[in-house]
Every structure is written in C-alpha cells, then in structure tokens.
Amino acid sequence: MRRARIQKFQTRMRQLRKELRAKETAEQLAADRTKIIERLDALTSDDSASKDIDFFRIDVGGGDEAKETHRTLSTAEMLAERKPQAWLFPNLLTKNEPAVIVGPSKTLKSSLAVDLCAALATGGKFLGEFAAEKVFRVGFVGADNKQSQLADLAVRWSAAREENPTLDNLQWFMAVEEPAAPENLESLQKWIEKFELEVVVIDPLKLGSTNKRKQAEAIRTLVKTISKAGATPILCVQTRKEMKPSKLDASILAGSLDFAQQWLLVNRREAFESGSGKHKLWLSIGGYAGQGGEWGVDIDEGKLTDEGGRRWNVTLREATEIEAAAKQAKEDVKFEKLESQLRRVLIDAGESGLCKYNIRSNSGMSGSKFGPTWDRMMTAGKIVEMPKDPHSTLKRYTLPPENEKNETERSSRRVRCADHEPAQQA
User: Fold this and answer.
1) Please, which pLDDT band fits residue 44 given cuts at 50, 70 and 90?
2) What confidence tens digit (pLDDT) does each residue in 360-410 have?
3) Per 3-state DSSP, what percentage of the chain is helix, strand, and coil (rounded to 5)?
4) Structural domains of the chain, ranges and CATH numbers in brackets
5) What residues contact residue 362 under an 8 Å CB cut-off, 6+ apart?
6) Which residues are CB-neighbours of 118 under 8 A, at least 6 positions away?
7) Which stretches does the entry tag as region Disordered (predicted)?
8) Can you name the residues that pair with 285 across neighbouring β-strands?
9) Helix or strand or coil: residue 278?
10) Statement: residue 318 has pLDDT above 70
11) Which string of b and e fits 165-204 if b means at least 16 CB within 10 Å?
12) Per-residue buried b or exposed e for 256-277, using 16+ beta carbons within 10 Å of the residue's own CB
C-alpha cells in the first residue's frame, strides 16, 4: 500500500514538472512573438530603413539572435538583387567596398591619401586627373603627431587649384592610439555616425600585435566597424620590407590584406634625390569591379626656400609612355657609345676620310652594331660623303666641319683606305 502511494506521488510530480516546462515555453514564445511584432512595426514604419534592408534574421527560440549560415537564390533572384555599381571615382575606386593604399615607407602614401580625400570632399580631381563622382562627406583618421604635416598638405592641395576650394566636407580624427584597438572602435563608429561620413581613410594603419593572425582579425574588425557605420573604408598600409624602385602587383596583398576589394599600389620609380622636392612614383590600381591601370606620378613639392614656399604640383603619365621613353633613352646611350667609336675612326683618318668598308673595319664593330649606327649617323648628318675623287671608284666619308672642331679625343693610329678594296663595299 505504501509503495503504491509513493509511485502515485512520483507520477504526479513528473506531470507537474512537465506542465511547468510547457508554461515557461509558452511564455517565452509569447515574448518572442511580441518582440517580432515590434521589430516588424519599426521596420515598416521607417520607409528609408525598409529600402536599405533586403532581409533580416529573427530568433523564435529565445536567447541570442540566430545567424544565417547561407542563402539560396535562383539565377533570376540573384540578378534581380544586382545593383548598379556605385563609384567614388569612375573606373578607379568603387563605393562601399574596402580599399587599401599599399607601399613601402617614404613613398608619399599619406600625401596621396590627403589628395584623394580632398578630391572627394570637393568633387575635384585625384592627382589632377581622376574626377570624383560627386561631393562626398569624408573622414581622415591620422596620427596625432602628424597633424601639422597633414594640415600643410591640405593647404598646398587647395592652393594648387585655381578655385582654391575649402575642405568643409573633410573631417579629421587625430588618434593617439591605434584605431583598431577595441577600446577605440566605439569612438570611431560614433564619429562616423555623427558626421554621416561616406568615406573614411585611415593613415597610417597601426596595429598593436605583431602576430599575423591577430593583425588580420584586427583589420577585419576595423573594416567591419567602418562599413557598419555606413562609410567606405580605405586603409593606408606600409609593406613589411623596403623595395627597389619598381611597380608593385596585387600579390603583395596576400595574407592580412586579402579582404581588400580594390587597391592602389605605390612605389618609387626612381630613387629620391634629397633636397630636390621632386618625386617619381609608380601607381598601379586594381579591383574586383574590373578597374585597373598603371601610371607614372611626378610630384613636385618644391623647397622651403622657394618663393611662396612648398607646393603640390602633380603630373600623371601613362606607364607605356614612360617605359617607351626609358627604352629610347637606353638605346640612345648605347648608340652614343657606338657613334663615338665611329667619330674617333674618322678623326684619325684626317682630311682624306675613309670608305665605308674601312670605317667599319677600323671601328672593330660587328655588322649588327655597325649597320644601325651608320644609318643613324648618316640620317642625322653626323657623317657626310666627301666630294667624289676622280682617281678612285670608292666613296669616302668624313665628319661635318663642326663635329671635327668640337671633337677633342684622338687616337694615335692613322688609317688609310687601300686602293684594292672592292667597290661594292663602298
């Protein structure tokens, strides 16, 4: 009898616990339902918000908001969601996609970043060539100890333009510590939201950790924070090692910078001559939107001692033009040496001159070098044909009178043209 009563009591307790759990579940579902209705009401009452939000995630199971792991779309749905490409600078930088400006130390990354920000903030031209799509609200995050340098760059940029524009749409955030530090991200986000910034440039990108994995995580968090606040992030990043003057390619982005959807790669084209104020750079751009190109950037900053002080004069040149000019200069140097050899041979010959065969023979040149050099000098009038000698069938050549006078270098040899040389060699 006693055992039966115990069993009945245990059965009743199990039933009560089951009913209590069901009641708690019902109350939780009711609370979740109320929360969902409030969120839907808020979204539908805000027209601007409903336009910007394509879909949202809800949680009917209580606790933290559930995260979607994937979406499934038909081709038609995917094409329907496709949006026109928005640009900061047409065919150069897109809007809402993270970008980087990468290069070794002392390659004017900060200067280029100020030029870019100023162009966006005024609707002007980046490097005097790439026009901004419109006027944007721009923010520049810089190191506190570079404030004077940045202000000088901004003044010189405006002074270099005829209209001398003001930079009212450019806000500055002078950071003492690294902006990617967790304690600074909230301040950065509030600053972006306060001024409703559309583009944020960070220079230089400073990271506290030297661990590559932690660096990558910090950069991604920083980019996500800026994007979440509604701005396009552009980060200035210094390469880990110095590089010889040359073009850079996108392979340099591998690793912690592979988040970048677009990039500006800058390096020196020629070593900087201290005190000249003149810089020759390579600029390579690329991005997932299909933009790409290479240019030479010539920047003349002048000197402090110049009248009016330093300046900001920029000239952009096509990479192909620069490479062709460099190739031509190299060819000119090569031919100058070869031409000098022929001039010495003709000087040694004196007033009697030499026939073409003996000029080549005494120069010691191969046919592949002599032929092009001879043609260049004859076309340029650097070698002239002498009056025909009635006693010889061979044509003789000499230097023009002015070349003969200006040439001071002579060898001790004397050469003559032999009478038995075949006429076809003339």
Assistant:
1) low
2) 999 999 989 999 999 999 999 999 999 988 888 889 999 998 754 454 444
3) 45, 20, 40
4) 87-302 (3.40.50.300), 325-402 (1.10.10.10)
5) 345, 348, 354, 413, 415
6) 124, 154, 157, 158, 165, 167, 170
7) 387-426
8) 264, 293
9) strand
10) yes
11) bebebbbebebeebbbbeebbeebbebbeebebbbbbbbb
12) bbeebbbbbbbbbbeebeeeeb
Quote the CA–CA distance of 190 and 183 in Å, as a whole number: 12
| Nearest-angstrom CA–CA distance, 320 and 44 | 55
User: Which letter does DSSP use for residue 243 in this model?
Assistant: -
Contacts of 292 (CB under 8 A, 6+ apart): 285, 286
**Residues 268-298 pLDDT 10s:** 999 999 989 999 999 999 999 999 999 999 9
Q: Which of 189, 153, 182 is nearest to 170 (CA)?
A: 153
E strand or H helix that includes residue 36: helix 2-45
| CA pair distance 262, 255, nearest whole angstrom | 15
Q: Which residues, listed in sequence order, are joined to residue 232 by a DSSP beta bridge?
A: 199
- pLDDT tier at 421 (50, 70, 90 boundaries)? very low
